[in-house]
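Progress against Task 2.4 (sequence-to-structure conversion) is shown through the following example record, which the project officer requested during the mid-term review.
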Amino acid sequence: MRIYLIAGEASGDLHGAALVRALRDREPGTLVMGIGGSLLAAAGMEIRVDNRDLAVVGISEVISHARDLRRALKVVSDDLARERPDALVLIDFPDFNLMAARRAKSLGLRVVYYIPPQVWAWRKGRLRKIGRRVDRVLTIFPFEEEIYRRQGIPVTFVGHPLVDAASGRPGRVEARRSIGLSEEAAVLALLPGSRRREVELLFPVQLEAARRLGADVPGLSVVVPVAPTVDERALERMAAEAGVKARLSRAPAIDVLAASDAAVVTSGTATLEAAIAGVPFVIVYKVSGVTAALGRLLIGVENIGLVNIVAGRRVVPELLQEDASPDEIVRAVRPWLTDRASRAGMERDLDEVRRRLGPPGASARAAEAVMSIVGRLVPMEKSDERVGHA
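Structure tokens generated for the chain above:
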């Protein structure tokens, strides 16, 4: 089996690596090539384009990286024509991936979209493109399934792969020991994002909040999990400039979060990792003024945090744009670091979110769906498509 896979960002690299391992468990000779990062490379994928050069956020940054994106699309287009894989598997990264899907369909190739665009939040017009260019959508949120089904798009809810990633991970005591943290210390995790622009905008704000919290909470330990797409030296420099003694860790973010009493998390997949870890946290996010103005016009959901969207209500504070300030972060986080009882309510809400993300086994179910598309298993339309029966 020959699979071409595109994961343009750090979260896609994580989920793609789990999918590659699940595919090879079922068919050991599977060859996977495409766009990814260090985790996909470690899982055995042949990297044709490194995704560190492609992860962008906001309209202005997309424009500035247009040449890199065009070059990568040319590599993908040429690869698909030459290699003619059994399937093209897309993970998130929607604008780029939908162009790749168009090329694949022009060549008569099968296309599977694993972790599709968040059409329920904005740009619902993408549904038409997905319907024309994708053979099957594999969703990771339960409410997405009906959206695609209403449009007549073949869809399967497989559950969220982060539930798999968290299975068997160390608990609080073991996580602290592995990272080198005291069992008694108050621990604050800072997650500045996986894209360069996110880090530039949000890490200084997070660091200043941590500095102020350190004055209120004696012995506060600050830990920063370093995403594979982020320059660790840049984080070290920014922490030094802010006067914060931060421990940078290459441990998985889920382990750092499990070791923490509270966290400040950049909006994105990491918010779900925090929910699964059960650590109280605040969501922060900033983009350029132009992107923010357009977003207010286009985004059709009340909450932007994935945790709050899954919960169907505001469980976690969201600090966006000018509200993503040290003052507001400190106001939200301080009670979690100083009062165990104040953490209990959010921990109960986060447990509810974890249950809604589905049972373990998402990566295995996604692998089986891909194999059914290329004829390795019973076709999906002849089997039960829901989680727990795939």
